Model the fold of this input.
Amino acid sequence: QVQVVESGGGSVQPGGSLRLSCTTSRLTFAKSVMGWFRQAPGKEREWVSCIGLKGVTTRYADSVKGRFTISRDNAKNTVYLQMNTLKPEDTAMYYCAADVYGSCSTSSGAYEHWGQGTQVTVSS
Done:
């Protein structure tokens, strides 16, 4: 069974940084587009970023563009989300997802495998 496990969340002050990691197992990682989503309390899950198979193609939501960077290490079956200049509105549960043989989609329905999430809280 495919496993997707996020880590790296925590509490940080506004302006701070966090680096999320997502490690997968039993997944054809090198053939999977990887995405990050987030969900704040009382809000719908929203797409944050995605990265293509070789890490060349990346996309970002306007709300995080210029502050977040997605990357992947296919040798480690891991995708990262470097989050800088964090704002209180970035507070959410962050989820990693995999779309095997897919494209860099902004739709959560395109992703077959999901992690349990890691909490990010930005507060002074």
Remarks:
- The chain is about 0% helix and 50% strand.
- The mean pLDDT is 96.
- Residues 29 and 123 are 34 Å apart (CA to CA).
- The first strand starts at residue 3 and ends at 7.
